[in-house]
Amino acid sequence: MEKILISACLVGDKTKYDGHSNYNPLIKDLLELYELVPFCPEVEGGLKIPRDPSEIKGDKVVSSKGRDVTRFFNEGAEKALNICKYLDIKLAILKEASPSCGSSEIYDGSFSNHKIKGEGITTALLRKNGIKVINESEIESLLKKEEN
Ligand code: SF4
Asked: What pLDDT digit, counting tens, does each position of 77-107 carry?
């Protein structure tokens, strides 16, 4: 079975900054076709649950209280890449808009709930290393592709 790295919060782990998950009901269908490897870059990078929300601002990641948390995000991204290399993972499904996991949009750094085009720290590193990253809105089309 092909392995896919997946944001831990999408499989129901309560790893979000506010202590909740982003459980996606299509996970059970994915599990019939793939071996899912849940991973949360922020928690693995050393941040706690719950934690202050963070956004990418220029070349840094800052918390809503103004703390520079870039090193935790970089650490989580490196660990995600190591797991992909170790398990020969070529595809990741990551939660859209997160400063770690976003794949086409992120929050703009002003903490005003405004999104811009961009990608999270983990997504950028995985893509730089040839790993395809999609988000949860693309799970359905991935499943359909497998049906055909
Ligand atoms: S860092 Fe990624 S996996 Fe972790 S809670 Fe945020 S979106 Fe989910």
From this structure: 999 999 999 999 999 999 999 999 999 999 9
Position in ligand 1 atom list of the atom nearest CA 98: 7
pLDDT digits (tens, 9 = 90+) for 11-67: 999 999 999 999 999 999 999 999 999 999 999 999 999 999 999 999 999 999 999
CA distances from 29 to 33, 76, 85, 139, 146 (A): 7, 27, 25, 9, 11
**Two structure tokens written together for 53:** 């929300």
Give the closest residue (by CA) to ligand 1 atom 4. Answer: 40
Q: Is 0.85 topped by the overall pTM?
A: yes
Regarding the beta carbon of 120 and ligand 1, being less than 6 Å apart is answered no
Domain spans of the chain, in order of start: 3-147
Using the mean position of ligand 1's atoms as its centre, give its distance from the Cα of residue 15 in Å: 6
